[in-house]
Amino acid sequence: MVAHDRVVDTSNLAERLGHLGLTSYEAKAYIALVRRDSYTAAQVSRMAALPRQRIYDVLGSLVAKGLATSRPGSVVKYAAVAPDLAIERLVEARRSQMLDLEREAAETIAALAPAYTAGQTHTDPLEYVELLRDRGAINERFAELQASVRTEILVFTKPPYATPPQENVEGIEVTRTHQAKSVYEFSIFDDPATIEGVRRFIEAGEQARFVDELPLKLVIIDETTVMIGMRDPVAGTTDLTIMVVEHPELASVLKIAFEAVWARGLTFDQAYDRFVRRKSQTA
User: Fold this and answer.
1) CA-CA distance, 187 to 212, in Å (whole number)?
2) Side-chain-facing half-sphere of 145: CA atoms under 13 Å
3) pTM of the model
4) Which of 38, 68, 88 is the last residue of a domain?
5) Other CB atoms within 10 Å distance of the CB of residue 76
6) Beta bridge partners of 77
């Protein structure tokens, strides 16, 4: 076997040529062409195991890229350009592409930089305030806040409930592992299911107090984040607007208010006895 017909490791060479910018078909065709002085298109197709219907397009592309030449005749033949020249042309094409890419990158940076710089100086004075009205969104946000507790969660609990105590499974888990204190209204004793839900929280470790009436729904997390439920004072609807505020100073002030209400509240047993007596007196 003569040298130019020796076996070539086509898979490895094709991969390298691919890194330099050739398609897999182009790489296989060029590797086939270097094995002889010239080939017809049909011969290249057989040697490189390429589809006959694609071979003329592939060879034409190699010619256009300067990696092959065509020789006119009764049957057109194709010849490979010497590998050192062919590879240099591929590398040069890559260099040109990189220069174009670098230029486009610089132009893109120049176009985006002013907007970015301006954006860094723009702040929303109320970006730490979030308003929620949809019940599903309220439940989802409350679940996120419960999951974010690191040390302490304080709650004023009163109807209407986005998630009733008996359905707040996530809250039970938070109560088991963190300090949790809640103040409830006596009205919870009107509903046996709610009473049972509160009992489960207390059994899980929650500290609970009970008062006649709470001014609003409130959650304070780690003296940092506050969730407040506000009823429409004009419409008087039971639908709530929930406001979430990430503001340590506000959280600290509201914690003082929470502790004041907590201090005058009754324990579960005291509140339950009072409720039973009230029921018996009105019966």
Assistant:
1) 8
2) 28
3) 0.54
4) 88
5) 13
6) 40, 71
